[in-house]
Amino acid sequence: MTLISFVVPAYRVQAFLSECLDSILGQPFDDVEVIGVDDHSPDGSGDILADYAARDHRVHAVRLDDNVGLGPARNVGLDRAGGEYVWFVDGDDWLAPDCLAEVAARLRRTRPDVLLVDHVRVRWDGRATRSALADVFPTPPGEETFRLAERPEALRLLHTAWNKLVRREFLVDLGLRFEPGWYEDVAFSYPLLLAAERIGVLDRVCLNYRQRRAGAITRTRGDRHFEVFVQWHRVFRWMDGRTPPVDGLRPAVFERMIWHYLTVLGNGERIAPELRSAFFDRITADHARWLPPGGYPAPPGVEGLKHRLVAAGRWRTFSALRAANQAREVAGRQVRRGRPVARRAARLGRDAVLREYYLAELRRPLDPHLAVYAAYWFRGYACNPAAIYEAARRLAPQVRGVWIVRRDRVESLPPGVEYVVAGTREYHRVLARATWLVNNVNFPDFVRKRPGSVHVQTHHGTPVKVMGLDQQRYPVGAVGMDFAKLLRRVDRWDYSVSANSFSTQMWERAYPAAYTTLEVGYPRNDRLVTATDTEVREVRARLGLAPGDRVVLYAPTHREHLPGYRPPFDPELLRDALGPTGVLLMRSHYFADRDRRPGLDPGAGPGPARVRDVSGHDRVEDLYLAADVLVTDYSSAMFDYAVLDRPIVVYAPDWEAYRLARGVYLDLLAEPPGAVTTSFPGLLDLFRSGAVDAEPATAARRRFRERFCALEDGHAAERVVRRVFLGEVG
Length: 730
Known about the structure:
Elements: E1 4-10, H1 17-25, E2 32-38, H2 45-55, E3 59-63, H3 70-80, E4 85-88, E5 94-95, H4 100-110, E6 114-123, E7 128-130, H5 133-136, E8 164-167, H6 168-174, H7 186-195, E9 199-211, H8 227-240, H9 250-266, H10 273-290, H11 301-312, H12 315-337, H13 341-346, H14 350-362, E10 367-374, H15 383-395, E11 400-405, E12 419-421, H16 425-433, E13 434-439, E14 454-457, H17 483-490, E15 495-498, H18 501-510, E16 516-519, H19 526-530, H20 533-542, E17 550-554, H21 571-577, E18 582-586, E19 611-613, H22 620-626, E20 629-632, H23 637-641, E21 648-651, H24 655-661, E22 675-677, H25 680-689, H26 695-708, H27 716-724
Helix pairs in contact: 7-8, 9-10, 14-16, 15-27, 20-22
């Protein structure tokens, strides 16, 4: 018999589910099974579970035809569990490394009905806070097991299912199931502890409890929080029907109930102001209904005062005291953060004048026909915004598109494109008045999100390296990052354009907010899909390439954590390896104006006829169409180029260092888009031997395309325009 069955329900957790599953399956202890329950999730959670089940015999995926909720989904998993113990782990949490061996040893030595394990709360900004276990048990119980009556303080531990391993036979004999509705853990955890004969405590952090910034029930306002009363009623009805009775523990359970109610009420992200009075009245009613005959141990101090006000039904007094306390906290923060108003008044100069002009323009109505576009920090007309702009001109001609560009990039704009220069008065005006703002990076911090305006974040590639908040785990790659400001920028997004399910998952992790994802493919790749043979020949001719040339495009990514780094690369040696018809095009990252170009000295002009620097070419799509082979390292170029179904070579000479220092989402050596090498001699050998075009490379590219390019049908920009500008859904 398997020792531990993990039941992992999944609903809208696609961004975190792989991390959860990997944390279980990657442990050195493997006497486990995972029952993953897709609770009719509208995202890719079900597909992730199915993929893991196909690759690992320990994973069993269940798809539900309807969304039943967390509690019933756990019941489905429980019914299929075959392990001696069951651990209910939510799909957005993850286990601590190497914890399972210690958990298993404790289970086998002590055979508890319930084993309580420690956890930490991990916020989206990376901050972690410990649980109450050390406070509840200042002296760890060790391997001692106990009944709740012997250690009633155990009730003060968090009443969740995921911090408990339960002996499955005990649970089945008890007949305890998860109830539907929110706060389902309440009606499960308390009866479980009350009934257990042998409770154990493992004072080792075994689980990371993710505090999501967006999408979590605990951060969702609404009247469904009133369901907490229903769950607590179930606890007391269970106690009333229990034989033998558990009256000795009733006061402690009652105190936990009032504490929990006040916790929910005190969380401003759960109970809306207009519902707070009604919620308080329900607490007062339950206080009278379930109060033990002999009373209960109310807490001291301010918490005890809250309990007394609840008992007396004194909502106005309770509310006034809460408001006064909040006012003191706000005043304290202002004193700590404050800076004299005079400092702002002292700021002079052109920038301050323009900023005041921007603020004045914000008071004017939005222009219902104005859309503002930008790409790569105003470097020019490019990428997804350019493709969306072109589609909007065709499908939504009533929308006037204006581009923001740097002064030195004005000449790169196509004829007829309306523009403003970054930093000018006109720039501030259009940013203040535009109804739509479309960018593949973020607009400056001063830009306000106006009611009625629509911000579209298109991104500029499928991510290989970690992005956004995930960079907190890799401080080398996050030097100079202000994550608080990043989140304020992300909060302006209304839409996030995604090229594939993988990108959607990573963006939700890296940029947690309330935006809507448009998983439609990448607009900039439409041209790669629709380009004809004639267009390809014309592009090659404009680049001076002969029909018989074998063209290789080398496009490495930027290493922002290693300024000045250049991968080992000899252009002439590679060109020689291509044979007499070979032509090598070399393109640096768009950060080249801030760094040295890989493989070329700063400012180098065109090289010999068969080795050319094409870093200054405005449209990278032209280079993709012209190239017969792409050589890259960790650049998103590989995902775009794969649309063309042509050979791709991953040349990753610093893979291990990059993976450890910068962090990656994808193991390119295990899941490459074609041939792979980590050395320059190896790169030469790939071309000399023909491995670039061999069947293993072709098969790898086919798998890569199936995973990342399935949405690229030439209509991505149209889908964005119809949703964003025309309001079409579906």
